[in-house]
TrEMBL record:
InterPro entries: PRK/URK, Uridine_kinase-like. The gene is uck2a-L. One of its GO terms (molecular function) is ATP binding. It catalyses: cytidine + ATP = CMP + ADP + H(+); uridine + ATP = UMP + ADP + H(+). Belongs to the uridine kinase family. Pathway: Pyrimidine metabolism; CTP biosynthesis via salvage pathway; CTP from cytidine: step 1/3; Pyrimidine metabolism; UMP biosynthesis via salvage pathway; UMP from uridine: step 1/1. Keywords: ATP-binding, Kinase, Nucleotide-binding, Transferase. Residues 306-329 are annotated as: Disordered. This is uridine/cytidine kinase. It comes from the Eukaryota. The lineage of its organism: Eukaryota, Metazoa, Ecdysozoa, Arthropoda, Crustacea. It is an enzyme of class 2 (transferase). Its EC number is 2.7.1.48. NCBIfam families: PRK05480.1. Residues 97-291 form the Phosphoribulokinase/uridine kinase domain.
Amino acid sequence: MLCQHLVLGARKTVNVGKNIRQLCQTLIEQHAVLMRGLRSAPEFSAAWCTKSSSLYPATTHHSRGRRTTVMSTHKLDDTNKTANGVTNGFSPKTPFLIGVAGGTASGKSTVCKRIMERLGQDDIEHSQRRVVCISQDAFYRPLNAEESSKALKGIFNFDHPDAFDNELILKTLRQILDGKICKIPNYDYVTNSRLESTTTIYPADVVLFEGILMFYQPEIRGLFHMKLFVDSDADTRLARRVMRDTRERGRNLELVLHQYTNLVKPAFEEFCLPTKKFADVIIPRGAENTVAINLIVQHIQEIVNERSGNGSGNGTHQRSRSNSDSKIR
């Protein structure tokens, strides 16, 4: 009798083990199918080597025993769903619009600059660029007399959503998506006013639009095919802002610190930081994160090269080429 119980128990143990192995194998197969689907999606191409945040919270880089976040990816919202070959309003003939947001002095413009440099677009004539960059700072709205007085005293909040001409931003983005030539204002940070001159933006394959509140307005946010958030340490951002405002914008240290404490920091926490959740890709450490920048550059290269027939180019859209693999062909 004892032997029979032992035999039955052993059989049950074997059966349980088989069931566990079958379950594990099923889970592995389902995971493989899911990952193949993610890699084939436009927003998560194989060249990016990124992973869905529902499975992996961040892409990491290991160095000398330390675990450092390279960049994290978020699921795209419903506005990015694919329908009839069009993803979030993006078709092969539509400029690919990338929004770049982040706190003051987080490194947004530097990240965009590095991307332009690696693509070999920084030294090309504006009318011939296939990738262009626009700053939200150019769209500060004109101030009335009272607001100008406050700005000179350092008590006007330029980090508030109402400080921007959002209607003009929306109009410009729509013109860009329609492939039209558009003109954007030039802004003078010393006088806190627009200049009479403007900058002409020519049609391009990829457009980077950077600013602290690029994702705040739903209408504007919904036009981006991809959204990047540059995430930097608060102390680093403060140090950079102090250096920038005192050296480039002629402001004294006391005024800069007063603005940051009473206006910039509260506005960041209220308006900018909450928009981080809308980002498709979060870039920690800003321009120092060369791994993330290189991945983004590779993705942009693919977009541009696909539009030019694997780099062949044609007609008026052909640009000069470089022997460097990091530049657009």
